[in-house]
Amino acid sequence: MIAWMHRAPVWVVIVVGAITAGLFLVGTVVHVADLLHHGLRAYEWAPKWLNFYWSSLALLDLLTAALLISGKRRGTDLACAIMTTDLAANWYATHGIQHSSLAAQPGLQRLVAFTIFVLGTAPFVRRHRTS
User: Fold this and answer.
1) How far is CA 58 from CA 6, 27, 86, 126, in A?
2) Rounded CA gap, 34 and 54, in Å?
3) How confident is the model over 23-41, as pLDDT tens digits?
4) How far apart are CA 22 and CA 34, in angstroms?
5) If phi over 0 gives left and psi between -120 and 50 gives alpha, with beta otherwise, what is residue 23?
6) How far is Cα 113 from Cα 108, in angstroms, rounded to an integer?
7) pTM above the 0.85 mark?
8) Which of 115, 127, 113 is closest to 9 using CA atoms?
9) Rounded Cα distance, 76 and 72, in Å
10) How many angstroms separate the CA atoms of 77 and 60, rounded?
């Protein structure tokens, strides 16, 4: 393991956790708003399974934020899993369905940046969390 991961100050872990939890709460609000305004098929152009996945993020994002706020290691693990699958789903939707590019999709650009942030900070944040 990289030495700096062992020496990461607790305040850095708290700040990273707060930022991550806050952004997962933003995701919760977005997915809940989509559900309230459009129902389970918020994106008519997308297949049902993809709409179901995005709708499920209303609960999964909230659960992740709660686990991160409570200092649970599972919150970091769930954040990594969600960001990996959400990025894959959005990448598929952008390139495979809409035939668009990363450069034309600012939402996908933000998702890539947040995924890199979550996956990049997870190793040293996880070490300071309880199971």
Assistant:
1) 34, 7, 12, 24
2) 9
3) 999 999 999 999 999 999 9
4) 19
5) alpha
6) 9
7) yes
8) 127
9) 7
10) 12
